[in-house]
Amino acid sequence: MASIPYPLHPARRHSSKFGRCLALLASCLFIHAAQAQTPPAAAGAMPAMPERVAACIACHGKEGRATPDGYYPRIAGKPEAYLFNQLQNFRDGRRQYPMMNYLLGNLSDDYLHKIAAFFANEHPPYPPPAASDASPAVLQRGRQLVTQGIKERQIPACAACHGTALTGVQPAIPGLLGLPRDYLNAQLGAWTNGVRKARTPDCMATIVHKLTPEDINAASNWLAAQPVPQDAAPAAAPPAPLPLACGSMQQAGVPGQ
Protein backbone atom coordinates (compact mmCIF):
# COMPACT_ATOMS: atom_id res chain seq x y z
CA MET A 1 0.00 0.00 0.00
CA ALA A 2 1.22 3.48 -0.77
CA SER A 3 2.67 5.45 2.12
CA ILE A 4 0.24 7.98 3.56
CA PRO A 5 1.86 11.36 4.26
CA TYR A 6 1.30 12.99 7.62
CA PRO A 7 0.26 16.61 8.00
CA LEU A 8 3.28 18.82 8.68
CA HIS A 9 4.71 18.10 12.11
CA PRO A 10 3.01 20.45 14.59
CA ALA A 11 6.29 21.34 16.25
CA ARG A 12 7.39 22.90 12.96
CA ARG A 13 4.05 24.52 12.21
CA HIS A 14 3.71 26.06 15.67
CA SER A 15 7.23 26.77 16.92
CA SER A 16 6.09 29.27 19.56
CA LYS A 17 3.62 26.79 21.02
CA PHE A 18 6.32 24.10 20.90
CA GLY A 19 8.60 26.35 22.94
CA ARG A 20 5.88 26.96 25.53
CA CYS A 21 5.21 23.23 25.71
CA LEU A 22 8.89 22.51 26.30
CA ALA A 23 9.07 25.10 29.06
CA LEU A 24 6.02 23.65 30.76
CA LEU A 25 7.38 20.17 30.18
CA ALA A 26 10.52 21.07 32.12
CA SER A 27 8.48 22.39 35.03
CA CYS A 28 6.25 19.31 34.98
CA LEU A 29 9.23 16.96 35.10
CA PHE A 30 10.75 19.05 37.89
CA ILE A 31 7.54 18.68 39.91
CA HIS A 32 7.52 14.93 39.34
CA ALA A 33 11.17 14.59 40.39
CA ALA A 34 10.56 16.69 43.47
CA GLN A 35 7.53 14.62 44.38
CA ALA A 36 9.54 11.40 44.15
CA GLN A 37 12.05 12.83 46.67
CA THR A 38 9.56 14.50 49.01
CA PRO A 39 9.09 12.89 52.41
CA PRO A 40 5.50 11.68 53.06
CA ALA A 41 4.94 14.34 55.70
CA ALA A 42 5.48 17.10 53.13
CA ALA A 43 3.47 15.49 50.33
CA GLY A 44 0.50 17.79 50.96
CA ALA A 45 2.61 20.75 49.81
CA MET A 46 2.89 19.44 46.25
CA PRO A 47 0.86 21.18 43.54
CA ALA A 48 -2.56 19.80 42.67
CA MET A 49 -3.11 17.89 39.43
CA PRO A 50 -4.20 20.95 37.36
CA GLU A 51 -0.77 22.48 37.97
CA ARG A 52 1.01 19.18 37.40
CA VAL A 53 -0.58 18.67 33.96
CA ALA A 54 0.22 22.19 32.75
CA ALA A 55 2.46 20.79 30.03
CA CYS A 56 -0.44 18.68 28.75
CA ILE A 57 -2.94 21.53 28.44
CA ALA A 58 -0.38 23.76 26.73
CA CYS A 59 -0.86 21.60 23.63
CA HIS A 60 -4.14 19.77 24.26
CA GLY A 61 -6.03 22.87 25.39
CA LYS A 62 -7.75 23.93 28.59
CA GLU A 63 -9.16 20.88 30.39
CA GLY A 64 -7.84 18.77 27.50
CA ARG A 65 -10.55 20.05 25.14
CA ALA A 66 -8.12 20.32 22.15
CA THR A 67 -7.03 23.41 20.29
CA PRO A 68 -8.25 24.75 16.93
CA ASP A 69 -4.98 24.11 15.07
CA GLY A 70 -6.27 20.84 13.63
CA TYR A 71 -3.64 18.48 15.03
CA TYR A 72 -3.58 18.09 18.80
CA PRO A 73 -6.47 15.84 19.86
CA ARG A 74 -9.04 16.22 22.59
CA ILE A 75 -8.16 14.05 25.57
CA ALA A 76 -10.91 15.24 27.93
CA GLY A 77 -13.54 12.63 28.74
CA LYS A 78 -11.75 9.75 27.02
CA PRO A 79 -11.96 6.40 28.87
CA GLU A 80 -9.38 6.34 31.64
CA ALA A 81 -7.90 2.99 30.58
CA TYR A 82 -7.52 4.26 27.00
CA LEU A 83 -5.65 7.36 28.17
CA PHE A 84 -3.44 5.26 30.42
CA ASN A 85 -2.68 2.87 27.54
CA GLN A 86 -1.67 5.75 25.27
CA LEU A 87 0.52 7.33 27.93
CA GLN A 88 2.24 3.97 28.38
CA ASN A 89 2.56 3.58 24.60
CA PHE A 90 4.33 6.93 24.33
CA ARG A 91 6.54 6.18 27.31
CA ASP A 92 7.45 2.71 26.05
CA GLY A 93 7.93 3.67 22.39
CA ARG A 94 4.88 2.06 20.76
CA ARG A 95 3.80 5.57 19.72
CA GLN A 96 6.27 8.08 18.37
CA TYR A 97 6.09 11.81 19.00
CA PRO A 98 9.34 13.23 20.44
CA MET A 99 7.82 15.70 22.88
CA MET A 100 5.43 13.09 24.32
CA ASN A 101 8.16 10.43 24.44
CA TYR A 102 10.42 12.86 26.32
CA LEU A 103 7.69 14.07 28.64
CA LEU A 104 6.67 10.60 29.74
CA GLY A 105 9.97 8.77 29.50
CA ASN A 106 10.68 8.62 33.24
CA LEU A 107 7.16 8.68 34.68
CA SER A 108 5.83 5.76 36.71
CA ASP A 109 2.65 3.82 35.97
CA ASP A 110 1.16 5.36 39.12
CA TYR A 111 1.74 8.87 37.81
CA LEU A 112 0.36 7.93 34.39
CA HIS A 113 -2.79 6.58 36.07
CA LYS A 114 -3.23 9.92 37.85
CA ILE A 115 -2.88 11.88 34.60
CA ALA A 116 -5.33 9.54 32.84
CA ALA A 117 -7.88 9.80 35.66
CA PHE A 118 -7.62 13.59 35.68
CA PHE A 119 -8.43 14.01 32.00
CA ALA A 120 -11.02 11.21 31.93
CA ASN A 121 -13.01 13.22 34.47
CA GLU A 122 -12.89 16.48 32.50
CA HIS A 123 -15.97 17.18 30.38
CA PRO A 124 -15.77 20.59 28.69
CA PRO A 125 -18.26 21.24 25.86
CA TYR A 126 -17.41 20.28 22.29
CA PRO A 127 -17.23 22.97 19.61
CA PRO A 128 -19.33 22.56 16.46
CA PRO A 129 -17.61 20.57 13.70
CA ALA A 130 -15.55 22.41 11.11
CA ALA A 131 -17.16 22.84 7.72
CA SER A 132 -16.09 20.11 5.31
CA ASP A 133 -14.88 20.76 1.78
CA ALA A 134 -15.17 17.08 0.83
CA SER A 135 -17.52 16.09 -1.97
CA PRO A 136 -20.83 14.33 -1.25
CA ALA A 137 -19.39 11.14 -2.76
CA VAL A 138 -16.40 11.20 -0.40
CA LEU A 139 -18.62 11.82 2.62
CA GLN A 140 -20.96 9.00 1.60
CA ARG A 141 -18.02 6.64 1.28
CA GLY A 142 -16.82 7.72 4.71
CA ARG A 143 -20.26 7.22 6.27
CA GLN A 144 -20.44 3.68 4.89
CA LEU A 145 -16.98 2.77 6.20
CA VAL A 146 -17.67 4.18 9.64
CA THR A 147 -21.22 2.94 10.18
CA GLN A 148 -21.40 -0.23 8.06
CA GLY A 149 -17.90 -1.31 7.08
CA ILE A 150 -17.26 -3.23 3.86
CA LYS A 151 -18.18 -6.88 4.30
CA GLU A 152 -16.66 -8.16 1.05
CA ARG A 153 -13.27 -6.70 2.08
CA GLN A 154 -13.62 -7.91 5.68
CA ILE A 155 -13.50 -4.36 7.00
CA PRO A 156 -15.69 -3.98 10.11
CA ALA A 157 -17.51 -0.74 10.78
CA CYS A 158 -15.72 1.71 13.06
CA ALA A 159 -18.93 1.74 15.10
CA ALA A 160 -18.55 -1.98 15.84
CA CYS A 161 -15.69 -1.14 18.21
CA HIS A 162 -15.96 2.58 18.93
CA GLY A 163 -19.65 2.43 19.83
CA THR A 164 -22.89 3.05 17.97
CA ALA A 165 -22.69 6.74 18.86
CA LEU A 166 -18.95 6.79 18.04
CA THR A 167 -18.24 8.31 21.45
CA GLY A 168 -16.05 5.45 22.68
CA VAL A 169 -16.56 2.38 24.85
CA GLN A 170 -15.39 1.64 28.36
CA PRO A 171 -12.87 0.73 29.50
CA ALA A 172 -10.34 1.39 26.73
CA ILE A 173 -11.82 2.41 23.34
CA PRO A 174 -11.76 6.13 22.42
CA GLY A 175 -14.48 8.16 20.77
CA LEU A 176 -13.94 9.22 17.17
CA LEU A 177 -16.12 12.34 17.10
CA GLY A 178 -14.82 15.80 17.91
CA LEU A 179 -11.37 15.04 16.47
CA PRO A 180 -9.75 17.13 13.70
CA ARG A 181 -9.52 15.62 10.23
CA ASP A 182 -5.74 16.16 10.12
CA TYR A 183 -5.30 14.28 13.39
CA LEU A 184 -7.45 11.36 12.22
CA ASN A 185 -5.57 11.18 8.92
CA ALA A 186 -2.22 11.31 10.69
CA GLN A 187 -3.05 8.51 13.13
CA LEU A 188 -4.48 6.18 10.50
CA GLY A 189 -1.45 6.95 8.35
CA ALA A 190 0.86 6.19 11.27
CA TRP A 191 -0.70 2.74 11.67
CA THR A 192 -0.45 2.13 7.93
CA ASN A 193 3.22 3.09 7.88
CA GLY A 194 4.05 1.15 11.05
CA VAL A 195 4.90 4.23 13.10
CA ARG A 196 2.02 3.80 15.55
CA LYS A 197 1.53 0.46 17.29
CA ALA A 198 -0.61 -0.93 20.07
CA ARG A 199 -0.49 -3.99 22.28
CA THR A 200 -0.62 -7.32 20.49
CA PRO A 201 -2.95 -8.27 18.92
CA ASP A 202 -3.00 -4.83 17.30
CA CYS A 203 -6.52 -4.81 15.89
CA MET A 204 -6.24 -1.30 14.47
CA ALA A 205 -3.16 -2.24 12.46
CA THR A 206 -5.02 -5.25 11.05
CA ILE A 207 -7.97 -3.12 9.95
CA VAL A 208 -6.04 -0.12 8.66
CA HIS A 209 -3.89 -2.28 6.40
CA LYS A 210 -7.07 -3.22 4.54
CA LEU A 211 -7.89 0.43 3.84
CA THR A 212 -6.82 2.42 0.81
CA PRO A 213 -5.65 6.04 1.12
CA GLU A 214 -9.02 7.01 -0.37
CA ASP A 215 -10.82 5.05 2.37
CA ILE A 216 -8.83 6.80 5.07
CA ASN A 217 -9.48 10.22 3.56
CA ALA A 218 -13.21 9.51 3.31
CA ALA A 219 -13.56 8.19 6.86
CA SER A 220 -11.57 11.09 8.34
CA ASN A 221 -13.58 13.68 6.44
CA TRP A 222 -16.92 12.16 7.44
CA LEU A 223 -16.00 11.76 11.11
CA ALA A 224 -14.63 15.30 11.41
CA ALA A 225 -17.84 16.71 9.91
CA GLN A 226 -20.15 15.07 12.47
CA PRO A 227 -21.51 16.97 15.49
CA VAL A 228 -20.91 15.45 18.90
CA PRO A 229 -24.11 14.46 20.73
CA GLN A 230 -24.98 16.49 23.78
CA ASP A 231 -23.66 14.91 26.99
CA ALA A 232 -21.53 12.52 24.92
CA ALA A 233 -19.83 9.84 26.96
CA PRO A 234 -18.21 6.45 26.33
CA ALA A 235 -20.70 3.56 26.24
CA ALA A 236 -20.56 1.14 29.15
CA ALA A 237 -19.90 -1.85 26.87
CA PRO A 238 -19.44 -2.64 23.16
CA PRO A 239 -22.70 -2.96 21.18
CA ALA A 240 -21.77 -6.59 20.38
CA PRO A 241 -18.72 -8.84 20.69
CA LEU A 242 -15.75 -7.06 19.14
CA PRO A 243 -15.09 -8.16 15.55
CA LEU A 244 -11.38 -8.60 16.30
CA ALA A 245 -9.31 -9.34 19.37
CA CYS A 246 -7.64 -6.13 20.60
CA GLY A 247 -4.69 -6.18 22.97
CA SER A 248 -5.73 -3.05 24.87
CA MET A 249 -9.21 -4.41 25.57
CA GLN A 250 -7.89 -7.87 26.44
CA GLN A 251 -5.62 -6.25 29.01
CA ALA A 252 -8.73 -4.61 30.47
CA GLY A 253 -10.53 -7.98 30.57
CA VAL A 254 -12.73 -7.60 27.48
CA PRO A 255 -12.25 -10.42 24.91
CA GLY A 256 -12.63 -10.05 21.15
CA GLN A 257 -14.42 -12.39 18.78
List its traits.
257 residues; mainly alpha; 0% strand; globular; disordered N terminus
In brief, what are we looking at here?
The protein has 257 residues and is mainly alpha-helical. 47% of the residues lie in helices and 0% in strands.
Written overview of the protein:
The chain is mostly helical and 257 residues long. It contains 13 helices and no strands. Helix 5 (80-92) packs across helix 6 and helix 5 packs across helix 7. The longest helix is centred in the first third of the chain and has 23 residues, at 15-37. The chain is globular. Mean pLDDT is 85; it is low at 1-15 and 33-43.
H and E order:
HHHHHHHHHHHHH
Cα-atom Rg, whole angstroms?
18 Å
> How would you characterize the largest beta sheet?
none
Q: How many helical stretches?
A: 13
Ends distance: 27 Å
* Low-pLDDT regions: 1-15, 33-43
Give the number of DSSP strands. 0
Q: Which oligomeric state applies?
A: single chain
Mean pLDDT: 85
Shape: globular
How much of the sequence lies in strands comes to under 5%
**Percent range of helical residues:** 40-55%
Secondary structure category: mainly alpha
